[in-house]
Amino acid sequence: MTWETVIGLEVHAQLATNTKIFSAASTAFGAMPNTQACLVDLGMPGVLPVLNKGVVDMAIRFGLAVGATVAEKSVFARKNYFYPDLPKGYQISQFELPVVLGGQITIEVDGKKKVINLTRAHLEEDAGKSLHEDFEGYSGIDLNRAGTPLLEIVSEPDLRSPAEAVAYAKKLHELVQYLGICDGNMQEGSFRVDANVSVHRPGAPFGTRAEIKNVNSFKFLERAIMFEVERQIDVIEAGGQVVQETRLYDAAKDETRSMRSKEEAMDYRYFPCPDLLPLIITPAMIEAVKADMPELPDAKRARFMSQYGLNDYDAMVLTNSREIADYYEAVVAATGGKDAKIAANWVMGELNARLNNDNLSISESPVDAQRMAGLIARILDQTISGKIAKDVFDAMWTSQDSADAIIESKGLKQITDPVAIAAMVRGVIDQFPEQLAQYKGGRDKLFGFFVGEVMKATKGKANPGQVNQILKDELAK
Ligand code: ADP
Ligand code: MG
């Protein structure tokens, strides 16, 4: 008998504000421990939290992007628990009344589209961090992260496989970056995923779920779910029962381990935070955000296909991030919109390979869109061949020079003078009488040999189309 898997994800996206959700302390990553936690973040008596307006705009932005309802009124509550990295004794989080309700994300797996429903998205503050390394048996507490704004995005249990869960998480990851509300940096913890997983027999009700906490890469997400599904099936097939619990994924061992069970789960005693007014969002606020919405990934993809004549795959790669898409469009615009496909090949091919090789993001590219366009323009007007263009590109990568300057200084201009090419073609033919005889005797394959020799003789600079034509004529003589 087979099993069916059910997955629902809770994603914590750290909102890209400069200051914290309820205080003016900086949210910059990587500062010395405890240099960015102010009295409000510590919950000292006598201080009051003040809501950062930026996070409200970001929540609205997200809600609009996923077609959700933006709540007119939402409420911040206190979630009470004790932990060393939470000196206040409570975390402020929206609970009963979240700011975003419903919404949808469309994923694609194996060419099949599927709509995943969102339950809600709510605003909350992050806690601090316990550091267990380098303290000779002691743990350290860093409260820099306390009060960092998070948007927790909860999906319905609509996902049916690890692949669907990863596709959904990636789609969300791409979306929050497009929206400019989260930097998406998973290593730094800006985008963390909790995966709820259960299994059941076809036709039976959903099984009991386990929740795997804080997965911080797509690969680990896939592996953690795969391991968890197998584990639950083994438990049930051995006659046992899955218990509702929180588990942790250990990447080194590639397994999930129990952290705490539902019996040990805390009663958080949620109640509305008396220090904060309900969050009221007016239609005017929503309109203002709407007027300022960027183009979203799916719309951009469709536009790239219709406007630039790109295929599905190219459009997908080029809209993978807003930076790549912007770079690409800048290149096309700078080449007068002439050959969008060549520009696509260069951005996805040569540029992308170089960036990967040097471990750079596109915003750090040594060759900006303008210089890239300068190179493509010389391919389009046949000043250089595509092959020589790669050498020019290499030179551009390590200098500030334009394609024109490099072509000029290295003498790489394509040879297009038919008289000059014909002279070189005859020179090569004279050089290889044996091959010429064989060719005349019917060995057609040798045509390629002559082309190669001519290109060699011209250091690749002769226009390949002309070389072919002229060679044909000369060999026929
Ligand atoms: P809690 O409040 O305990 O976190 P929720 O009902 O809000 O529980 O669900 C949390 C997450 O668990 C949601 O993403 C939801 O889709 C998912 N979920 C709920 N039931 C199941 C199930 N049987 N199997 C897998 N995931 C589930
Ligand atoms: Mg939960």
List key phrases describing it.
alpha+beta; 10-stranded mixed β-sheet; binds adenosine-5'-diphosphate; binds magnesium ion
Radius of gyration: 30 Å
Total of DSSP H or I helical runs spanning 4+ residues:
16
Which of globular, elongated, flat, extended, rod-shaped describes the shape?
elongated
Structural class assignment: alpha+beta
Tell me which ligands are bound. Answer: adenosine-5'-diphosphate, magnesium ion
Contiguous low-pLDDT stretches (5 residues minimum) are none
Number of E-state strands: 17
Overall mean pLDDT: 94
Described by strand count, sense and barrel closure, the largest sheet is: 10 strands, mixed
Which strand-content bin applies to the residues? 15-25%
Provide the helix percentage.
Answer: 40-55%
Number of domains: 3
> How widely separated are the two ends?
76 Å
Helix/strand layout:
Elements (H helix, E strand, L loop, with lengths): L3 E11 L24 H4 L10 H13 L3 E2 L2 E2 L1 E5 L9 E5 L5 E2 L2 E6 L2 E14 L3 E3 L8 E3 L6 E7 L6 H17 L12 E10 L9 E6 L2 H20 L7 E6 L4 E7 L9 E2 L6 E2 L2 H9 L5 H12 L3 H7 L3 H13 L5 H18 L11 H12 L5 H12 L5 H7 L8 H14 L1 H8 L5 H12 L6 H13 L1
Parallel strand pairs: 13-14
Antiparallel strand pairs: 1-11, 1-12, 2-6, 3-17, 4-5, 4-16, 6-8, 7-8, 8-11, 9-10, 12-13, 14-15
Helix pairs in contact: 2-5, 3-4, 6-7, 8-9, 8-10, 10-11, 13-15, 13-16, 15-16
Bound molecules: adenosine-5'-diphosphate and magnesium ion.
Adenosine-5'-diphosphate (ADP) binds next to strand 1, strand 11 and strand 12.
